[in-house]
Amino acid sequence: MTIAEVRSICTLHSSIVNRYLLLRQPDLKELFVPDRIDRSSPEFRSFLDLYENASLLELGALADAKRRELHPDGVVTYIVDRNINYTNVCVADCKFCAFYRRPKHAEGYVLSYEEIGAKIDEAKALGAVQILMQGGHNPYIPFEWYLELLRYIKRHHPIHIHGFSPSEVEFFAGRFRMSVDEVLKELMAAGLDSVPGGGGEILVQDVRDRVAKKKAGADKWLEVMEIAHGLGMKTSVTMMYGLGETHADRVEHLFRVRAVQARTRGFTAFITWPLQPEHTEMEGTPKTDAQTHLRTVAIARLVLDNVPNLQASWVTMGLKIGQIALRFGCNDFGSLMIEENVVSAAGTTHHATIEEMRRHIVDAGFMPARRRQDYSIIKDEIAA
Ligand code: SF4
Fold first, then answer.
1. Is 127 left (phi over 0), alpha (psi -120 to 50) or beta?
2. Pocket lining: 12 vs ligand 1, CB cutoff 6 Å
């Protein structure tokens, strides 16, 4: 995008334009230290200033311009898939989690292969093209169970398996005395297709030490992703905010993701949503407002200029905010979410039908298109 285009599209206050132009100067990128973010760099301070001080509409206009630059066709995609949480037994004790149960808890469960297969069949009947399969860090499940599960699904209920977040992969590596590389190779050989970005929360160690001390640290989480990318797998990446972190922590999270992406190009999409504190140890933490969410989506679109897709998180924020997010940098309406246990365990969840999702996309001025996990569009699914 040219400077003139930025000025004409956004009709912004000149200081905002200047801040944007400062961000675009390629030589400033050289100040960026990939794995140890320099918070005093001009680029970092410029983005932080933009996040904290630009008006909501100015920030949205910049993000919308970036979205248009990356996705000029006016199409907003969505996917039909199903969350399958194969176990809720977990020893990680994350303070923000309402989903897990400690070992031996009466409500702990592990789904059988047959139960998982039945859920896949139901989802496929509704048009699902992938499953998102994640679970707790269950110390009682042997590695062979996961491998056989993947083989079972591919044999009897074939579908794209987007499964096992980096924190699960890291847990497997520690539990089964394997390297992350070995774990991923075995999972891939058994049928794993791609890795979801779950468990990212805020990729700043101080924050993780406060709320999720026992699971993969910030460096390890990113390392797992980089190894997965090196093995040829695509992954998504997330940020759950509202854990008491600073705005600078959020911007650092985005910088760290961008640094990995600059090396690997393996992240297909970024998704951000706020903490849902109900029924968790963090109950009472103030909930995010719409403005904060939209600002966060917008700054993510601007920092992550090398991550192609940004999902609107309407499951936590509601369809209307999701719709507005399409004008704050998002180009994807996410998933129909046939089943969502983790967010709903914390009490906040929104539901929609495919027709409702498509209508919200159309009403926001875009053409809806159903997609696969790799963002390829399913034929005949673009609606005028
Ligand atoms: S967020 Fe995941 S790892 Fe943390 S307690 Fe919940 S299920 Fe366990």
1. left
2. no
Provide the Cα torsion 231, 235, 143, 111; round to 10°.
-150
Instruction: Evaluate whether residue 43 is within a structural domain.
Output: no
- Say if residue 8 is exposed, middle or buried (CB neighbours under 10 Å; 0-12, 13-18, 19+): exposed
- Give domain status of residue 192, yes or no: yes
Tell me if 215 CB under 6 Å of ligand 1: yes
Residue 12: predicted pLDDT: 39
Is the beta carbon of 90 within 6 A of some atom in ligand 1?
yes
**Residue located nearest, by CA, to atom 4 of ligand 1:** 94
**What's the pLDDT at 11?**
35
- pLDDT tens digits, 349-380: 567 788 888 999 999 999 999 999 899 999 75
Domain-embedded: residue 335: yes
The answer to whether residue 51 is domain-embedded is no
- Between CA 197 and CA 192 the distance in angstroms is 14
Cα 130 to Cα 291: distance, rounded to the nearest angstrom: 32
86 CA to middle of ligand 1, Å?
13
Distance separating alpha carbons of residues 132 and 111, to the nearest angstrom = 14
CB count within 10 Å of CB 186 equals: 18
Q: Does 92 contact ligand 1 (Cβ within 6 A)?
A: yes
Residue with tokens 């680029």: 43
- The answer to whether 208 touches 159, Cβ cutoff 8 Å, is no
CB 338 within 8 A of CB 81: yes
The pLDDT-based confidence of 26 (bands split at 50, 70, 90) is: very low
- Both tokens of 199, joined, read 């468990």
What is the value of pTM for the model shown? 0.88
Q: What share of the chain is helix, strand, coil (3-state, %, to 5)?
A: 45, 15, 40
Q: Is the pLDDT of residue 49 over 80?
A: yes
The count of structural domains within the chain is: 1
State the average pLDDT over residues 96-118: 97
CATH number of the domain enclosing 354: 3.20.20.70
Angstrom distance (rounded) from CA 103 to CA 45: 45
Q: Distance between CA atoms of 316 and 373, rounded to whole angstroms?
A: 21
Domain that residue 93 falls in:
68-381
Residues 6+ apart with CB under 8 A from 137: 90, 91, 92, 167, 168, 171, 215
> Is pLDDT at 381 greater than 60 in this prediction?
no
